[in-house]
From TrEMBL:
Organism: Scheffersomyces stipitis (strain ATCC 58785 / CBS 6054 / NBRC 10063 / NRRL Y-11545)
Protein name (record): High affinity methionine permease
Molecular-function annotations in GO: L-amino acid transmembrane transporter activity
Major site of localization recorded for this protein: membrane
Topological type in the membrane: Multi-pass membrane protein
Gene3D superfamilies (alphabetical): Amino acid/polyamine transporter I
Signal peptide (UniProt feature, chain positions): none
Compartments where found: Membrane
Membrane found in the keyword field: yes
Chain ranges passing through the membrane: 20-39, 51-72, 103-127, 139-157, 169-192, 213-234, 246-270, 305-326, 347-368, 380-399, 411-436, 448-472
GO cellular component terms given for this protein: membrane
Length: 522
């Protein structure tokens, strides 16, 4: 790899806890959160017909799989690196020095939140308990579950993965029960009348509204999101099994998720009582199915518990994956106190990255008032990642060029160029959709009462601030101060390795460069 990047840790100080079982449930928990239980009806509303909705769910799967293919090629090149995006971007864009790591680190620290899972957990726990829902009840439960996940991830990495595995197993059993129930419904074995009617004339009502189709595509793609979390733990897989685990097993799990989605959607459609009922159900399509099939409050409570546990499992995947990404930012040396970000003491975990992830999520969960401000902050968090995705796909081409110049061949996986181009075009499309006015000509956003593209403008402003900071820190101040930046290698007690960015006076640069190699070692 490029010497300018964070140094490879010969033996991973976080251990090797990612086996086939943990990888399976990491993908399951990363992708299957609450989306599949909430979005099928809104997708159907947007696209207009059952047949067209299936086309979108298939297209969303293909896009997700293509994205996974790109990650796999990166993983075959950098088998000992954790962090996913941050490590791959660092290797793809070594020049200008520190630019991409600085921007990624700043955006990751500022926007490292996934409060939607915590809020969803609180919402469904309240629903299952028959309590009166209020914003602060939801947030209070959200704080409790955030704290629990943060403590577990910070103190015991094996326990956090085992809990994720257990929750994933419970989720899979419940999903299997729902799907089997769907087959019973289709067979006429329940109280639901005419379960096949919704599939007749499946293409009737298909919309030609470009905005509605685009929104439906984005909703479907969000439901397939989360495939990247497992790639943040590549370095924690058994080095002898890493290539086969990621080349063959992970795509297989993504295919399984696709089959689960198609079967769940078919189940919800069959038990909903007709096309009009599905469209009216909104985010309650799964509850409508349970009500129609079982007709008891206990059944819908069981569903609420499942969705809450699903949100908890997703939150665990987020904390585990994101803490690894932030640790890689620290190892690159662009964050203050890099050794604190890098160390795994005292629990064998990336303690400071976990704490930062927790604090940022806590602030986003509690600080903004419910409504516009909260939705606005969450929208920024979602939108900010799309730009790095495009850089990642373009970066794969740069990595290939670097490897070719070094005389290195593909390492067992090669993504065809058309797949890379499709990935780039898709994320350009998602970025552009933020600027398309809402239906009806209103300039207000769908979830805020002010200008619909404010979150997109703010996100771009944050990126421009990061770039401006970089040029001030890396170019202007050193020129005024008469020094240059250099990286120094360090090695900690448990085998942790990283870089520190230091200031070297201009008249000492030549001596420093003679005494250190490109990776900062003496």
């Amino acid at each position: 790899q490029n010497d300018a990047g964070a140094p490879v840790e010969t033996r991973n100080p976080l251990g090797y806890n990612l086996d086939y079982v943990s990888a399976f449930y990491m993908v399951i928990q990363g992708i299957i959160g609450t989306g599949i239980f909430l979005t099928p009806a809104s997708v159907l509303n947007s696209i207009g017909s059952v047949g067209a909705s299936y086309v979108l769910w298939v297209a969303g799967f293909i896009i997700a799989l293509f994205e996974v293919f790109v990650y796999i090629e990166f993983a075959t090149y950098f088998r000992k690196r954790n962090g996913g995006d941050v490590a791959y971007l660092e290797q793809a864009f070594p020049k200008p020095d520190y630019l991409v790591p600085t921007a990624y680190a700043a955006v990751s620290v500022i926007l490292s939140f996934s409060v939607s899972s915590a809020v969803a957990f609180g919402t469904y726990v309240i629903a299952a308990s028959d309590l009166e829902p209020t914003t602060w009840k939801q947030r209070g439960i959200g704080v409790a579950i955030l704290s629990f996940v943060a403590i577990l991830t910070a103190v015991h990495p094996k326990a956090s993965l085992k809990l994720a595995n257990l929750l994933g197993f419970v989720k899979m059993v419940f999903i299997a029960f729902v799907i089997i129930t769907g087959f019973v419904v289709l067979g006429g074995g329940t109280r639901v009348n005419n379960p096949h009617d919704i599939f007749k004339n499946a293409w009737d009502g298909t919309t030609s509204d470009g905005n509605a189709i685009a929104n439906a595509i984005i909703k479907v793609s969000f439901s397939y999101g989360g495939t990247a979390y497992v790639f943040a733990l590549v370095g924690e897989s058994n080095p002898k099994k890493t290539r086969n685990l990621f080349r063959f097993f992970i795509p297989g799990v993504v295919v399984l998720v696709f089959l689960i989605y198609i079967l769940l959607i078919t189940t919800f459609y069959a038990g909903a009582g007709g096309l009009a009922s599905v469209k009216k159900s909104g985010v309650l399509v799964a509850s409508l199915f349970f009500t129609n099939v079982f007709g008891t409050r206990a059944a819908t409570q069981a569903l609420d518990v499942l969705v809450a546990l699903s949100a908890l499992g997703h939150l665990l995947a987020v904390f585990v994956g994101h803490s690894r990404a932030l640790r890689e930012c620290g190892r690159q040396g662009v964050l203050p106190y890099p050794r604190l970000w890098t160390t795994t003491r005292p629990f064998g975990t990336p303690l400071l990255p976990v704490i930062i992830t927790y604090v940022v999520n806590l602030i986003v969960l509690l600080a903004p008032p419910a409504g516009d401000a909260y939705n606005f902050v969450v929208d920024i968090g979602s939108y900010s990642g799309y730009f790095f995705k495009i850089l990642l796909f373009v970066g794969l081409l740069f990595v290939r060029k670097q490897r070719k110049a070094a005389g290195l061949k593909p390492n067992g996986w090669w993504v065809p160029l058309p797949i890379i181009i499709i990935n780039i075009l898709f994320y350009l499309f998602v970025i552009a959709m933020a600027w398309v006015p809402p239906k009806g000509g209103s300039l207000k956003g769908s979830d805020v009462s002010f200008f619909y593209a404010t979150y997109a403008i703010t996100t771009i402003g944050i990126y421009l601030l990061c770039i401006a900071y970089y040029f001030v820190w890396a170019k202007i101040i050193p020129k005024i101060g008469g020094y240059q930046h250099r990286t120094v290698f360090y090695d900690l007690q448990n085998g942790e390795r990283g870089h520190t960015v230091v200031k070297v006076k201009n008249d000492e640069v030549e001596k420093f460069d003679k005494e250190h190699d490109a990776s900062g070692r003496l």
